[in-house]
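Anyone have tokens for Adenylate cyclase? Sequence:
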Amino acid sequence: MNKLLLLKQYILSKYLRRFESRKTIQVYQNKKIEKHLAFVLTHSPFYRNYYQDHQLEWESLPVISKREMMEHFDEINTVGISKEEAFQLAVKAEKSRDFSPKINTVSIGLSSGTSGNRGLFLVSEKESAMWAGEVLAKLLPGSLMKEQKIAFFLRANNNLYESTKSRKISFHFFDLVEDLKTHQNRLHELKPTIIIAPPSMLRMIAEWKENNIIDITPKKIISVAEVLEDVDKAFIEEIFQQTLHQVYQATEGFLATTCSHGVLHMNEDIIAIQKEYLDEEKGIFVPIITDFTRRTQPLIRYRLNDVLIERQTPCPCGSLFLALERIDGRCDDIFYGVHEQTGEQHMLFPDFIRRAVMLSYEDILEYKVTQKDLFLIDIKLKVKNENSMAEAKVKQELEKLWKEKLLVLPQITFTKYDLITSERKRKRIENVIKEKAKHETI
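Reply: yep, here.
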């Protein structure tokens, strides 16, 4: 690890890189992307061929998705690593739980594949140092010189995460595959100053603290990997008596992090964001990102599968970076209803479902809403006091939502809440209709 480069990136991000207006951000991004494109077109056969018939105004270049990224993995990356070679190493690491091996000096990562399509990512040592500097600048409470013990709960470790270690910072990987008793003992013994984990795991840790199973007082808690639901956020903040922060980190990079006010801001000093609006009036969009810092596996005009909601008012922190109201979920988990008069399908964003459930009954602790068919929705509820009123209230609110949109009412069923924390990402709002059925004409 190049510690000097890490320190340089830390200082740049935390103290020196400042923008006076949205215009200065755009000028900065354009300059960086122009230089980045010159490198990519020289070293990536895929992008060189893909862009050969296009003017190189980056804002209008063709978009790619994870499908193209995986199909053309060998030609996209600039270090000559084959998809087969990378995948074999990543799978071996998953099985052995030893995530340290590299290909030459390049770290290999494997995404969890919640959208049904696992992704590979490559990161060089230089990129690891730059990533670590950015992460430490934006996440650490206080100075880099203060001692920190970081407990990091994830499905898989990676050299990228280990790169944040230093003499003052100790990184402790908690493997979500391990049993919960092991986690309890390690947390109680370690007493971390920072905890980074999926919200489903954070909620469980909060329950352990509430029940005096563990005695910890972290300075900062950060939610990652899953959509952070309001019901979990409120509970975790109440137990730990502090603002719960978030990181929007994916195979595609370090995308966003929360400010001191707990508002998510896109990291527009390292990536450029374009919006493919699903509902412009409500600020609901799918992001198309261009990362101008990653050369090993370039991401130019890359369409994510996430639904984001932009904040409508300026953030009190004063940052000019794009602020988000929330990460709403995956495009795959948008619900669909059939219009009563036209028979056309209409989208119902996860936030609509979320709000209907949470506004229906105040004693709801946890829930899971699954669209199994265009006309069938299954709900699992966990409430403070077992009460049939909860089911009736939730059904009433959801039917009200469908009626407001003039959609044919679906059948709503209730089944026992039997979900437990595991290494798989938790979704509270999930659409499991097969892709063909989602879009076929009614």
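The two ends are 56 Å apart (CA to CA).
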